[in-house]
Amino acid sequence: MKTMTAIIIGAGDRGARAYAPYALTYPNELKIVGVAEPGIERRTKLQQAHDIPDEHCYDSWEEVLDSDQKIADIAIICTLDLDHFKPTMRALELGYHVLLEKPMSPDPLECIAMEQAAKKYNRQLTIGHVLRYTEFWSTIKKVIAKGEIGEVVSLQLNENVEVMHMSHSFVRGNWNNKEKSSPMILQKSCHDMDIISFVMGKKCKRISSYGSLMHFKEENAPLGAPQRCLDGCPAELECSFHAGRYYLGEGKGWAKKFTEDYTNEGIVKALQETPYGKCVYRSDNNVVDHQVVNMEFEGGATATFSMCGFTREQTRIVQIMGTKGEIRGNMEENSISIFNFLTKHETVIKFDNPVGGHGGGDNGIMRTFLQEIQFGNNGDSVSSASASVRSHLIAFAAEDSRLNEGQSINIDEYYQSLLENIKA
Fold first, then answer.
1. Phi and psi for 384 in degrees, rounded to 5?
2. pTM
3. Tens digit of pLDDT for each residue in 152-166?
């Protein structure tokens, strides 16, 4: 492989800490040559880490992409959800290959438009569905493809969000309000809609969903709780979510995501000034804290998905039931078991500790993305935008179903209605 160049657009957690480090580990494959980020401290840190010249450091994506001068082979776009569409469309037009953080967009029409633009300009558009690239899920896919458990009849996937991750990211954080970001099923669980489709290997025909915001709302606030935890909350010792105790104690690592000053003083200052210091019951959050999705696939196979923010660990637990056997797996334990109904033999596979985030998926997607740019793909590869659009549509349909009392939605009809809107 020749060394490719990239610009990071959005130097937050995913851009700076998940994707950009690949260039430091494998400098023979990738070099970061530019950054567009409004936050001065984040922009400066990335600049220093990758020795980026001043003339290629920008306050916004518009500064770098409004110019007709293309400064890299690749644009790695990790802006907030609402700001994905415009920079992606412009980057594709200018001739950049694009790695776009998931979800593609909170608007299904924009998702389809990006897929169409990638085809029009003959550019690689890869979406950050990193779970596909882990040993855990790729091995499950291979086991099913070999027919080891026969034909898949049913799949059950539980996404345990973990209670403090729920409060940090989806009650206090950037993804707490669907109008400002995306619905929970899209922002957090489009990973799961995608991996279910990937494993099943068939089109989803129908879907229904239920869920709600049950706990993190005003009426559940402790008596006398102030707007901010550090303003003297009488329930400090009884509340699992007290910001002062958490971010200055066991959950201090999460503070790196909202402040560049990681001293106790810096964290306290951030808790006094940012949403991360707010009472979880007095925030502007409106995304669900639990949701279930039911799916029917071609051939009659079914899948059920459950996301819940009230779990003690952050993991995904899967059970896949086939006509000849079953697979069980736990991502936190990084292992799967394969059971044969005839021989009663169980094979347990324990994977090595992954390198990089998301079970090794962050590194895996970067490597595959670079290879596919240089050596091509089969047109509907593991990382294609077309595959991502299909899984996004499942998430959009699930949210529509949830908002309509669990109404069953036909995915093909849903997709056709979207295409008609685009034509109109």
1. -70, 150
2. 0.88
3. 999 999 999 999 999
